[in-house]
Write a structure and sequence with these properties.
The protein is α/β, with parallel strands linked by helices. The protein has 22 helices and twelve strands.
Length: 659
């Protein structure tokens, strides 16, 4: 069985697309008539071994900042070989005019056929050398560039995995996507072709200058003296102008991708509120900013290119006038004048090419600066250098005087003290924005407290290795994230090596087995991106199966039932009973039915623990929780009365028991 384009090939039913449609799933995969062809293509693909991955929560010590020279340093030998091939290529390229001069002066003017034959043979050999050097340089440079880009992409992606949640709440997804796409693509163009061609053109310019002085020093000095100073001044202006322009281009393309990403993610809301026309206008404004930045760099480049071309024409006029006078005067041969004219024509070609390449260089430098800034971003939750591996835990969770704020001056929690015994369960309830979910995030060390400590079995979370901690925690959020893979792969997410029997047991325990049996391909059925082919209740059950299969000692449930209808909620509640058995649990709940399942309930109000105790104790105390419970009872009674008053045959679609 092979996975192709979101579907499995080789084990499909005779009409998988019809089966998917019958099951209420959108079509995913490939047409049935193309399955055999797709399998043949996959059979011809080369085998790729599993990559060896090394990941540390701490950034590698002593890693140099990202710059072109640090990127190339580990491949110094290959770079030097490419440069050597570039030298050979440049010398071979510029041998033609010099051979032409020898052929004219020593062969044509003297009537020597032997000299002409030798020059022609050498010319042919030089062409073969140029072809060989160019081919080898292109192949070696291409492989080197791809290897560098592979390493850089993995490095950036690894850094994304290392950064803390706070970073992702403050950065737009589209901006981060631009770092992995447009910025790395710009750097790829520079490393694969730009730098090599800059070296080629630079050496070509140096070789031509040397040959010009070899042919005739006064004429070369006059020509270079007119061209070089003006070109240097113009290039310095161009460098400053384009550096500003390409930094602006990189910023604007990041904004374009961010707006695109946000619009695609929110397409349902955009459609529901008829915002499509206004969103197009908004995107047009964003794209206009990117267009303006590119127009600026294009305008600067056009000025520089036109000026460089004009300087070249002036130089050619000087050579024709002064060189012709010297030839008439007998101080310059016809062959030397011809070679000089040919070399001077070639002298301006590298300058024009360097203008184009310098644009690529500036774009690459701007991209490097953006990537360097990203890679220098330090995670907020850092693993201590002396962190120790956390052994098997019993599951006691302790908060000692914990205060926390996401941003300075905006306190979310103040002086929180909690103690959840091993195997015990604690529900956290309270008004929206009171700090309930923050407590859950601190318990699994998604964030670190500003003051106080969070402990597991009396061990401060900041002193243990993150991997050993996360292996023993399971998290089921309000909206579980499902990847664009099969249902089986999503359940195995925390334990990829789990057997089929273990996966089947997890599905049975949470009540997901009936859904799996009804799907055309069972566990091999694709989930689609974000689980769009499943209902909210099915996604939540799948997340619980994932948590059960991971066998965590501590389970964090962050409003896991708040988005469900009554039928789905009842099914999820039954699954929770199985998943929570024997485990320490912290349950953030809006639903009273969910909160009451815990041993104890903590009421959070304005970032502090206002009350804590069992359900009966809190109701008897007559405080905040008692008021919430009374409101829920009154609401439930009203719903029951309304249900009784409905005509026979009507169904109750749902009732709220939110706190």
């Amino acid at each position: 069985m092979v996975f192709v384009g979101g579907a499995y090939v080789g084990a499909q039913s005779p009409s998988s697309s019809q089966a998917n449609a019958a099951a209420g799933l959108p079509f995913s995969g490939i047409p049935d008539e193309m399955i055999d062809r797709a399998a043949d293509i996959l059979d011809s693909e080369p085998e790729h071994p599993e990559p060896e991955v090394e990941f540390q929560h701490r950034p590698p010590p002593g890693a140099p900042p990202l710059r072109l020279r640090t990127l190339l340093a580990p491949h110094r030998a290959r770079v030097l070989l490419v440069v050597a091939l570039v030298v050979v290529e440049a010398l071979a390229t510029q041998a033609g005019p010099l051979l032409t001069q020898i052929g004219i002066d020593q062969g044509v003017l003297r009537g020597s056929f032997a000299t002409l034959g030798i020059v022609a043979a050498v010319f042919f050999a030089v062409v073969l050398i140029h072809i060989g050097a160019s081919r080898a340089r292109t192949a070696l440079g291409g492989r080197l560039g791809e290897r560098l880009m592979y390493g850089l992409r993995v490095r950036v992606f690894t850094h994304f995995q290392r950064l803390s949640l706070n970073f992702y709440t403050s950065e737009r997804a589209g901006v981060l996507m631009s770092r992995m796409t447009s910025d790395i693509e710009a750097l790829t163009m520079l490393l694969q072709e730009g730098l090599v061609m800059m070296v080629v053109q630079g050496l070509t310019l140096a070789v031509i200058t040397g040959v010009l002085f070899y042919l005739h020093v006064p004429l070369a000095a006059l020509t270079v003296g007119v061209i070089v100073p003006i070109t240097v001044v113009l290039s310095l202006w161009f460098r400053r102008a384009t550096e500003t322009g390409y930094n602006r281009v990189r910023d604007r393309i990041a904004v374009v991708l961010a707006d695109l990403s946000e619009s695609l993610a929110g397409i349902r809301t955009i459609t529901a509120y008829n915002r499509r026309r206004r969103n197009i206008a908004q995107h047009q404004a964003v794209v206009t900013g990117h267009e303006d930045a590119n127009v600026y760099t294009t305008r600067v480049s056009s000025v520089y290119a036109a000026a460089a071309e004009g300087i070249g024409i002036v130089g050619q006029a000087v050579v024709i006038g002064v060189g012709g006078w010297l030839a008439i005067d007998g101080r310059l041969t016809i062959g030397e004048l011809t070679a000089f004219a040919l070399y001077l024509t070639a002298f301006f070609a590298p300058i024009a090419q360097l203008v184009v390449l310098y644009n690529a260089y500036q774009q690459g430098q701007s991209a490097t600066a953006k990537l360097r800034e990203l890679l220098e971003e330090a995670p907020d939750v850092r693993e201590a250098t002396d962190a120790v591996a956390l052994g098997p835990i019993e599951g006691r969770i302790t908060f000692e005087g914990v205060s926390f704020s996401y941003r300075p001056g905006e306190q979310v929690l103040t002086g929180v003290d909690l103690d959840v015994p091993p195997g015990g369960s604690l529900s956290i309830v309270g008004p929206t924005g009171g700090g309930k979910s923050t407590i859950a995030k601190l318990a699994v060390r998604f964030y670190d407290p500003d003051v106080g400590s969070v402990r597991i079995d009396d061990v401060d979370l900041r002193t243990v290795q993150l991997e050993s901690l996360r292996h023993q925690f399971g998290v089921v959020p309000q909206e579980p994230f499902l990847f664009n893979r099969t249902i089986g792969e999503n359940i195995r997410f925390a334990r990829p090596d789990a057997s089929d029997d273990e996966v089947a047991e997890a599905c049975r325990v949470v009540g997901l087995d009936s859904l799996i049996d009804s799907l055309p391909d069972g566990l091999d059925t694709p989930c689609h991106e974000r689980g769009s082919s499943l209902s909210a209740g099915e996604r939540q059950l799948l997340a619980l199966a994932r948590a059960f299969l991971a066998r965590p000692r501590v389970l964090i449930l962050d409003e896991a039932t708040s988005n469900l209808d009554l039928r789905s909620e009842a099914q999820v509640e039954r699954a929770l009973d199985a998943v929570l058995e024997g485990r320490t649990a912290v349950i953030v709940a809006h639903r009273l039915a969910t909160a009451m399942r815990a041993d104890r309930i903590a009421v959070v109000d304005n970032g502090q623990i206002a009350e804590i105790g069992s359900h009966d104790e809190l109701v008897a105390a007559g405080g905040l929780y008692a008021a919430m419970y009374s409101a829920w009872e009154a609401h439930a009674a009203g719903d029951a009365a309304a249900q009784d008053a409905r005509p026979a045959g009507s169904e109750r679609t749902g009732a709220s028991d939110d706190l």
